[in-house]
């Protein structure tokens, strides 16, 4: 096997922003994979050889050409806030850090064009100047990049209204650089964007995105507490189903999960189950009627002005719930589950007890509000974790497995032939984030 000539590669790209020191390279080779004890074992020693931070598409083309010339693996990353090893290089090579490609090309009502390294919170600050904002965002909103979210994310705050990133219309267009002998710039529009949407950067370097926006409402943040978990869950479903109440977040936490939120402990009575919500401030009156109907108690309420400062409730929801819980008990891990119905939620709640503490995020799925879970799991063994996954699936729940770095083995469970065929055209040598796409790996074995 030919050894990679790193001195020559470094020399060819020396005019770009390079990071070569091992500490810097190691830091930018990783994400939050350690949320999973399974991935932690598999990925802890994986590192790139060189990090490059391009500032524009022209520099990306130069990097692509060098990678193809030397047959060097290339892994694209945003801010590295993912949890599944999406941006961890399995075979070393070059890490292409997109965070310096952070220009907002344009924003107009309902639509924007950005480079991939634009931070989501920074974008929203600008978009709100004309009354618009991102449709959805992860709990890492303050630091996550738009390109990283498209490449590795799927749902988040806002999904209760706007569904998932894979839904038609959630991504309008992308520009990508290929890894062919002569790298090209391609523009994908409409349904064609699904070739690279949530593909972990395995089949194109995204250099520009066109994204739809949502009207920016003044969001009130509230905590509502309940005596019974299923009452809290039914309240969440009722709020999700309330088409007349404009909302951005419906997050339900079974006790003892609220005990991990030490910064909010004065608002979370011991033994109570809670809902974290974000609703438009002009919908407070019907919201309060809903709280009353379910015998809830509002313990925390911030006006839009107050909520715009300090820590948002968002940072206690979605996978920040896992982050905060693990900071207190590192033996905890998590699952991602589509329960689809409250009946299934209740069954799992009673079946697993505190072994699988239920944390629900309501989202829109095929036009309906459904309960999805990021339940906290008391990890014992990989075998037991697999038993828990299997039981959920046997009972009709859908598991998006966060304990694998293989693209198709996570949420979708099927090979996307369009993505594989697109990779054949744009990455014929299989250099982009190798080892992550099962469809490509099986093709190589065939």
Automatic annotation (TrEMBL):
InterPro entries tied to this protein: FAD-bd_PCMH, FAD-bd_PCMH-like_sf, FAD-bd_PCMH_sub2, FAD-linked_Oxase-like_C, Oxid_FAD_bind_N
Organism from which the protein derives: Gloeothece citriformis (strain PCC 7424)
A GO molecular-function descriptor: D-lactate dehydrogenase (cytochrome) activity
Alphabetical list of PROSITE patterns matching this protein: FAD_PCMH
Single Gene Ontology BP annotation: lactate catabolic process
Protein name: FAD linked oxidase domain protein
One Pfam family recorded for the sequence: FAD_binding_4
Keyword set, alphabetical order: FAD, Flavoprotein
Domain FAD-binding PCMH-type: 43-216
């Amino acid at each position: 096997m030919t050894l990679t000539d790193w001195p020559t590669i470094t020399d060819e790209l020396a005019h770009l922003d390079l990071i070569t020191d091992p500490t810097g390279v190691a830091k930018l080779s990783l994400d939050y994979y350690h949320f999973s004890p399974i991935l932690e074992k598999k990925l802890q020693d994986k590192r790139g050889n060189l990090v490059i931070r391009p500032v524009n598409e022209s520099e990306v083309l130069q990097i692509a050409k060098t990678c193809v010339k030397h047959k060097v693996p290339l892994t694209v990353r945003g801010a590295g806030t993912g949890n599944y090893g999406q941006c961890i290089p399995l075979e070393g090579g070059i890490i292409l850090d997109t965070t310096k490609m952070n220009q907002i090309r344009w924003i107009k009502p309902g639509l924007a064009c950005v480079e991939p390294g634009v931070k989501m919170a920074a974008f929203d600050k600008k978009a709100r100047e004309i009354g618009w904002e991102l449709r959805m965002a992860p709990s890492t909103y303050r630091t996550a990049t738009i390109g990283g979210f498209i490449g590795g994310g799927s749902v988040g705050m806002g999904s209760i209204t706007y569904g998932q990133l894979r839904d038609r219309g959630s991504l309008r267009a992308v520009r990508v650089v290929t890894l062919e002998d002569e790298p090209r710039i391609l523009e994908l529009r409409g349904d064609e964007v699904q070739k690279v949407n949530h593909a972990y950067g395995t089949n194109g370097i995204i250099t520009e995105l066109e994204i739809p926006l949502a009207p920016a409402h003044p969001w009130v943040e509230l905590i509502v507490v309940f005596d019974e978990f299923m009452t809290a869950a039914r309240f969440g479903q009722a709020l999700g189903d309330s088409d007349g109440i404009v909302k951005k977040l419906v997050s339900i936490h079974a006790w003892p999960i609220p005990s991990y939120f030490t910064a909010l402990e004065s608002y979370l009575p011991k033994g109570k189950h809670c809902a974290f919500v974000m609703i438009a401030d002009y919908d407070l009156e019907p919201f309060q009627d809903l709280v009353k109907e379910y015998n809830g108690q509002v313990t925390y309420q911030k006006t839009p002005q107050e909520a715009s400062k300090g820590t948002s409730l968002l940072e206690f929801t979605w996978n920040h719930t896992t982050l905060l819980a693990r900071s207190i008990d590192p033996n905890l891990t998590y699952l991602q589950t589509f329960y689809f119905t409250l009946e299934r939620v209740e069954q799992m709640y009673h079946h697993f007890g505190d072994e699988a503490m239920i944390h629900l995020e309501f989202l829109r799925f095929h036009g309906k509000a459904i309960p999805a879970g990021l339940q906290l799991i008391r990890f014992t063994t990989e075998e037991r974790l697999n038993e828990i996954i299997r039981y959920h699936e046997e009972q009709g729940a859908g598991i998006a497995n966060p304990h694998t770095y293989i693209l198709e083995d996570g949420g979708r469970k099927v090979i996307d032939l369009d993505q594989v065929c697109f990779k054949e055209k744009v990455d014929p040598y299989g250099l982009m984030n190798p080892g992550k796409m099962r469809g490509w790996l099986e093709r190589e074995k065939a």
